[in-house]
Design a protein that fits this description.
Helix 4 packs across helix 6. The strands form two sheets. Strands 2, 3, 4 and 5 form a four-stranded antiparallel beta sheet that branches. A two-stranded antiparallel sheet has the order 1-6. It is globular and about 60 Å long. The longest helix has 22 residues. It is of the alpha+beta class. Helices cover about 50% and strands about 5% of the residues. Strand 3 and strand 4 form a beta hairpin. It is built from twelve helices and six strands.
């Protein structure tokens, strides 16, 4: 349960008390494509607090900036359902230096989206949006040429489709037609039922990952721990990477896009995992 969250802050945890977290957390901006509204973080602002801690309240776990409670953009009390997630969010806030760079705080932004729900979507709407990606799933659309890319897609994407079909007992398939594959209604129903087993918080993370990878199949491979983030991102960028190897890349630009996508995908996956697991952490685990 704790492996993902531990990597966020254990590197420098011995330097500070348990609830004062100081590991560096960075990365590109976090946006929410496909929603009616998104949070657009300010570029930077001066850090106004010294210490970060967490505490347990009636509604869950809260983040304290000195003696002030963190609030959402809509001025709601910032409360998360699990201690693990609270520690990860506190890590983001404590990692800020002289200025607060909100665009590096992916988990905080996802929490704000769940708490404020700016697009006013309910659980059923989130699930429908996620399942709809099956109709245009990245790994289901194939090219007919060049032969090298055809072979690459077959070798890299077919195993993911086969895994998903076996894992969920469904039929998916692939197609080179512009209309895409014909996804059976039963397949959509099974994925709908499976996603309904997650709570609203975890669903927000899952749907966010899907929008990054443009693939429900790759995203469920991540959530089920079948593939790591690096592999999921590589598979989602297969055609782009093929063209880069063939024609070369734009210095720094392609690398930035790659690392940005990895950061967003990792944040969404971690968020989903932390929102799906037990709410409390034994303190002794943090002291080992």
């Amino acid at each position: 349960m704790w492996r993902s969250c531990q990597r966020l802050f254990y590197a420098r945890l011995p330097q500070t008390p348990w609830l004062c977290l100081t590991p560096p957390v960075g990365g590109p901006s976090l946006s929410l494509p496909g929603t009616a509204r998104t949070y657009t973080p300010p570029t930077e602002r001066k850090r106004f607090y010294q210490n970060v801690s967490i505490s347990q309240g009636e509604g869950g776990f809260e983040i304290n900036l000195d003696h002030r409670k963190l609030k959402t953009p809509q001025a709601k009390l910032f409360t998360v359902p699990s201690e693990a997630l609270a520690i990860a969010v506190a890590t983001e806030w404590d990692s800020q230096q002289d200025t607060i760079k909100s665009y590096t705080m992916h988990l905080t932004t996802l929490c704000n989206t769940v708490l404020d729900n700016p697009s006013q979507r309910n659980k059923d709407q989130l699930i429908r949006a996620a399942v709809k990606f099956l109709e245009t799933d990245t790994v289901c659309y194939r090219v007919e040429e060049p032969a090298g890319l055809v072979e690459l897609q077959k070798n890299e994407w077919d195993p993911m489709i086969e895994w998903a079909e076996k894992r969920y007992n469904v039929e998916i398939g692939s197609s080179a037609s512009i209309m895409g594959p014909n996804i059976p209604a039963r397949t959509k129903d099974i994925f709908t039922s499976h996603l309904a087993s997650y709570n609203m918080w975890a669903l927000q993370g899952i749907e966010y990952v899907i929008t990054q990878l443009k693939s429900l199949i790759l995203s469920m491979g991540l959530i089920d721990r079948h593939i790591p983030v690096e592999k999921a991102v590589q598979l989602s960028r297969l055609e782009e990477e093929y063209q880069i190897q063939r024609w070369g890349n734009v210095e720094w630009a392609h690398d930035y896009d790659l690392y940005e996508l990895r950061a967003r995908t990792a944040a969404g996956t971690l968020f989903a995992h932390l929102c799906s697991e037990s709410s409390t952490v034994k303190h002794k685990l943090l002291q080992d």
